[in-house]
Amino acid sequence: QLQLVESGGGLVQPGGSLRLSCEASGFSLYNHAIGWFRQAPGKEREGVSCISSGDGDGTTYYLDSVKGRFTISRDNAKNTVYLQMNSLKPEDTARYYCAKEAIWCYNGNFYYASSMMDSWGQGTLVTVSS
User: Fold this and answer.
1) 8 A C-beta contact, residue 94 and residue 40
2) Residue 117 — pLDDT band, cuts 50, 70, 90?
3) N or C: which end of the chain has fewer CB within 10 A?
4) How far, in Å, are 17, 70, 101 from residue 128 at the CA level?
């Protein structure tokens, strides 16, 4: 079964850190750009970060509100993409998802076709609260 599984969320105090993982099963992540998305209660899902495919142009992209705090990386040997989140803020509270379909990450930009993204995993919940 081809799937992406998110993990690593939890409850953390403001200023804390978490590392999210997006592990692929049934296929190699190397050939795919991967995007991280989040959806807070009552809000639209938004693209947070992306990383180009292993043979891509090396693009990593960050939403302005997370620049300098989040870092995306891939470990091809472990078939996993990570999102390191530091200096977390209450407004980072959301369920986080990773995706490979209908996304493009190149030339320093992150493109995705929301209308084509109809299959999501369970995500991982991040709660930033004191």
Assistant:
1) yes
2) confident
3) N
4) 10, 14, 28
